[in-house]
Design goal:
This protein has one domain: Aminopeptidase (3-Layer(aba) Sandwich), CATH 3.40.630. α3 links the parallel β4 and β5. It is globular, with a radius of gyration of 17 Å. By secondary structure, it is of the alpha+beta class. It has a five-stranded mixed β-sheet with strand order 1-2-3-4-5. It has five helices and five strands; from the N terminus they run βααβββαβαα.
Length: 165
Amino acid sequence: MSFSFAIRVATPADVPIIFQLIQALAAYEKLSHAVTGTEEALRQHLFGDRPYAEVLLAHTPTDVIGYALFFTTYSTFLTRPGLWLEDLFVLPAYRRQGVGTALLKALARLASDRDYGRIEWSVLDWNTPAIQFYERIGATVLPDWRICRLSGDVLKHFGHPDEPV
């Protein structure tokens, strides 16, 4: 299958399709139950008074086929900002056709143009196709690092131990 596609910056009108793609990613990762957010919250966080994240979209002339959602981080070791790639997702029908690579290249250009020091992301240990893809493009999968997380009631209680949960 040969087709043309392009990469562009998301706009507020894209929020419904971005949210649908987030749900598709969660289904692929077997984490649909973890999607508790809403389109309205996503719209506010991407395009409100204080945007927290940005999105690049891959699209054909008629459809959005993938996305990369990312935000700025900071490396004290580099003393430079960087990008955290929260989501990279391409619809199954368009995989293995350069769409994911194009999204990552666009993100790398953006990071380079902003003089950022690096791009980082996580990958599920069972997602062998993604790990192999990342290694093919030259990414290092860090074997000694683990992600730590406080969320939900645990986060609330840890931050406010005197308040009832």
